[in-house]
Write a structure and sequence with these properties.
Strand content: 25-35%
Distance between the termini: 25 Å
Helix content: 10-25%
Structural class: alpha+beta
Number of strands: 23
Number of helices: 11
């Protein structure tokens, strides 16, 4: 029986010019025998999946010198000298072999039997990286306090977090935040790409009627290279205006919503940010939250919100509908802001040069600070190029090309790394989706999973009884086009079934049929 499938699912990885340079050894699929089990768990479809897997790249480096390796996908890794130790915590003085694998699409996730979720949330993946290190055929580890700097290409994505992959008892990979990779800085817009919509009347309605358009203008030279000119603060502009309107509402309570252009705004929220450029932006966010919370807890405001409304055009009707269910009105966690613009001493060093790390160390800069300085300058340079490319695409000067950016971070962890964004699944009640495979064949092996092309999510379903799988729907916040896929094998015959789903249903039947290996390979590569 071929039953149409409908449900919604909540969406739940640098060569320094020195005497000894890295050598690319070989390009080949990642063999399970070479990988510790905590890093790689093969599926039952090895013979099929190995034909569609990206290949691992191996580089031989001198462990006692600063090295930068770069693979064919423009993944770059800066490796400080003396970074590796063996199982007895002894420094590695000989050559080290670096294994590197980059995955950036759903086909890659299928081929390596990966999924994108944390313990509590779904994860939209922008790119995954597998990195391992060996000496004399044995795995080695990063020494305590040592970090690698990694530059990872991302397609049309910004502001991602980094996660470490670990396998559970069911051999499903789960991701946790890689705290060693967190960046404590914001990336500012360069002046020449501070485009007009950042601060015009289309972006913030009735702006110039109410606030000092000079003092609170991010394009003002006083705010050059401050967090005011960062993408994170740009994301706050509209929200700050709404909350400014909220805390000004009682002074204008007789106005209708259509007359909001006449409102005289209280500017304390904007003044908080624009007058405290040297304060950590997370601290300012917390203070702004307190201002708004104190306001909405005032008896006069509560009485106004509870008063009868003669017309839906009154301001308090708007606020009743929009704000009365919100506990924290200025929640910027999703914007990825971690701190302020680094105020580094220049040392007269070009931080984008291949020998920047060695030159900083020679100046007495500690290793971690040197990596942070290089990471910041690299990401800023990538970000500038990305935005200029977007400008050229928008004007038609550049056509038929994708816009790629890069993220730069440090990590003290090897293994699987994932750059992505958490998808909020905290609202709604989790639901178990039963997927029944319709076939009379008793298979030797079978896998079932769900794919969400945008925003790039793969979830493995759990086998509960013969050919019945369960996939947990995490919440009730957004609907995405989702594909349910089943792959099975009986002796030398493969089976395949797939359905695209849009709406809600919690028990579905999926018909699968025999398919030749090459055809199945093509089906999977289409994802």
């Amino acid at each position: 029986m071929h039953t149409k499938l409908y449900f919604s699912i909540l969406i739940g990885l640098v060569l320094i010019a020195c005497e000894s340079q890295p050598t690319l050894i070989v390009d080949q699929p990642l063999p399970k025998k070479d990988i510790e089990q905590k890093f790689f768990h093969p599926s039952s479809f090895e013979e099929l999946y190995k034909n569609i897997r990206p290949s691992v790249e191996r580089f031989s480096i001198d462990a006692q010198q600063t090295q930068i390796i770069k693979n064919k996908d423009e993944v770059e890794i800066l490796i400080p000298p003396n970074s590796f130790i063996d199982d007895q915590n002894k420094p590695i003085r000989s050559n080290v072999e670096i294994e590197l694998l980059y995955l950036n699409n759903l086909t890659d996730l299928i081929a390596y039997n990966l999924q994108t979720c944390t313990e509590r949330n779904l994860l939209s993946s922008s790119g995954m990286l597998y990195i391992n290190a060996k000496s004399n055929g044995k795995n080695v580890h990063l020494a305590k306090g040592q970090k690698l700097s990694i530059t990872l290409p991302l397609k049309n994505r910004m502001g991602t977090q980094t996660f470490i992959g670990q396998y559970d008892e069911q051999n499903n990979i789960k991701w946790k935040v890689n705290k060693s990779s967190e960046k404590n800085y914001l990336i500012p817009f360069p002046e020449d790409i501070l485009y007009e919509p950042y601060w015009d009347s289309d972006s913030v309605p009735v702006w110039y009627n109410s606030l000092d358009s000079e003092k609170y203008n991010p394009r003002n030279n006083n705010y050059k290279n401050t967090f005011i000119q960062t993408r994170e603060f740009k994301g706050r502009i509209w929200k700050l205006y709404e909350e400014t309107l909220l805390i000004s509402s009682l002074m204008n309570k007789n106005l209708t919503w259509d007359d909001r252009a006449k409102i005289k705004l209280n500017d304390q929220l904007f003044d908080l940010y624009f007058s405290n450029l040297d304060v950590n932006i997370e601290v300012l966010d917390s203070m702004a939250n307190s201002i708004v919370q104190n306001y909405i807890q005032q008896p006069e405001y509560i009485a106004w919100m509870n008063s009868p409304v003669d017309t839906a055009d009154h301001l308090n009707a708007f606020f009743k509908e929009t704000y009365n269910q919100i506990d924290y009105l200025l929640d910027f966690d999703a914007d990825g802001a971690k701190g302020n613009i680094p105020n580094f001493q220049s040392y007269g060093i070009n931080l984008l040069s291949n020998n920047a790390y060695d030159n900083l160390i020679a100046k007495g800069v500690p290793s971690n600070k040197a990596l942070t300085m290089i990471n910041f300058e690299k990401e800023r340079a990538h970000y500038i190029r990305f935005n200029k490319k977007l400008q050229l695409l928008s004007t038609g000067e550049l056509k038929n090309t994708a816009a790629y950016t890069k993220t730069v971070f440090s990590t003290s962890e090897l293994g699987w790394l994932n750059c992505g964004n958490l998808v909020d699944t905290t609202t709604g009640t989790p639901k178990n989706i039963k997927i029944i495979i319709e076939s009379e064949t008793e298979f030797d092996a079978i896998e079932c999973f769900t794919l969400i092309p945008e925003p790039n999510i793969k979830l493995n379903a759990s086998l509960v009884d013969k050919q019945t799988f369960i996939c947990t729907k995490k919440g009730q916040e957004a609907n995405y086009m989702t594909r349910v896929v089943a792959v099975a094998k009986k002796e030398d015959t493969y089976y395949f079934g797939s359905e695209i789903i849009y709406d809600e249903d919690y028990s579905i039947s999926l018909e699968i049929h025999p398919i030749k290996a090459e055809a199945l390979k093509n089906e999977l590569e289409d994802f």
